[in-house]
Amino acid sequence: MPTVVAFETLPELFLNIKNKYEDTSKTAFARKPATDEPYEEIGWGEVSEDVHTLAAYLVEQGVEVGDRVAILSENRYEWAIVDLALQLIGAINVSLYTTLPAPKCEYILQNSEAKFFFVSTGIQLKKARQVFDNCGHLQQVIAFDEPNIESYLDEDYVSLFEEAMAEGLKIYPELEDEIHRRSKSRSPEDMATLIYTSGTTGQPKGAMLTHRNIVSNIKAAHQRINITADDRCLSFLPLCHSFERTAGYYAMLAAGAEIYYTESVDTVAKNMTEARPTIIISVPRLFEKIYNLVTKSVEEGTAVKKKIFQWAQNVGRKYAEGKRGLVTLQKKLADKLVFDKLKERTGGRIRFFVSGGAALPAEIGHFFMGAGLHIIEGYGLTETSPVMCCNTYGDEQMGTVGKVLPGVTVAIQRLEDNEIIASLCGEDYPIDHSSEQGEILCKGPNVMKGYWKNDEATKEMIDDEGYLHTGDVGRFVDGKLQITDRIKHMIVNAGGKNIYPGPIEDLFKTSKWIDQLMVVGENQAYMAGLIVPDFEVIEDYATQNDITYDSIEDLIQQEEIQNIFRKEIRSYSRELASHEKVRDFRLLANEFTVESGELTPTLKIKRRIVKDKYGDLIEDIFAD
């Protein structure tokens, strides 16, 4: 589906889309003023005025073309206004995850040499005040929300967003021509944003993404995914991550779609029913949680309810595979009895989900497809702006991330001798084809300019042929890319066998008893697992079976609970090769979270952190 306006840069995208809609009642964004209040819709006329107002303020304050301006904020309307204003005047957006501690924020501010720093809440303002004196280029901090502690505003370098907007409104007429000149002078080769990697090891690196990188990715994605002006996207993944930035923000703007912001990541379920979106961009964790809630509800039901659910799943899968006739009638009944209730929980209007950031377990994908909730899975990296491949609606193949995007080339390089053994480009013709697995490489207009002030890391990532080395392992299956795992995640056991933990962990995620799992076993004779149980499930079981306990730590050590997990591990391991089977485990009393450091902001496990934190437990597993 083509974009609703033509554009070659992000300022062109904004100007052309606002020219199309500013004199209409078309909604651009929507936000919740308060938890118990309905969504407040914001039209393109108001957006245009706010963006130009802030642009005027920044120009007056001395922000020049190419200057870096940082944002530390949750997804919200003000984030979009800052970004669009920066694109308009040729400044570079440097976005930070709200979960970053002050020292990490300080490093990024110093490394990017940011001049201005926008922050959201009082919590984020506190970080800014802690690091300001150590960031020599930083001139001003602007807070979206007025902090509860008034002293936070005592420093002369702190301003409120409302004050900046009031000043910008006054001086905009004087600076209108300068803003217009800057917006028209942007080139596709100019840098649009610096997106810092999450930095699971060492300091984060800033990926330099140009207008061409992002715009080419938007247009290519639109050729594969049908997004229209009638769509509404619910935004909750961090906008400082390239997945949400391109797929859930710029690609939506390019379609004229509406963007509704959740109140927080914790309110996604509630906000789905309020916003009633047609598209949701997510990571697999959301689908895993929904799947586990549904299966838990069924397990707690009667034998009849279980049989109906199983029957509905079978019918849904047949329908998703293209079978019709009697199956069509059965599907209508399955919807009425089972699937319509699930759709109501998502707001009742979902056309499709888009999943990325990590592999989606195939079984969970099949469940949603059977329910009539399509999941379009894609794949890419921050450094590829980000999308390299994606499935298309109606041609989803669970267990793959789809075909290569138009204009992009993806190759497979054999790990043993670095020979390229397969390559596909987005025009869908094979240069060479093989099902053999190896490292996934990427070449195309979406590949970053390089890492900011880090030529060495750039050369390690992008070779002399222009291929970006992803560090992921995969293969082509019927012209679609299948991801195996990360190279650095590969476990070599005591027998020298190479084992990728990702597919093993995905298998176990469909268990109602298991919330999270990480496979370990480097240099060992067998694989084992660190398991975070679904605490609600095991507590319900304890209540129903009169198991007394003082704490979660006490409960997970109970022999009856341990036996449940022994049986579960044995059952699922039957599907694995002998050297892949999980033969021992330890239950953990705390889940992996972003805040505690075990998960990245896109909810992938930081394996090194988990290994360090639970090193004693891992040693205990293999002590014998």
Number of E-state strands: 28
- Based on the coordinates given, report the CATH architecture of the largest domain: 3-Layer(aba) Sandwich
Low-pLDDT parts are none
Distance between the termini: 59 Å
What proportion strand? 15-25%
Helical fraction equals 25-40%
Tag the structure with descriptive keywords.
GMP Synthetase, Chain A, domain 3; 21% strand; 8-stranded mixed β-sheet; 20 helices; Rossmann fold; ATP-binding; globular; AMP-binding_CS; alpha/beta; single chain; 624 residues
Word description of this protein:
By secondary structure, the protein is α/β, with parallel strands linked by helices. 39% of the residues lie in helices and 21% in strands. Helix 3 links the parallel strand 3 (68-72) and strand 4. Helix 7 (211-224) crosses helix 8 (242-255) and helix 11 (303-320) packs across helix 13. The longest helix has 24 residues, at 161-184. It is globular.
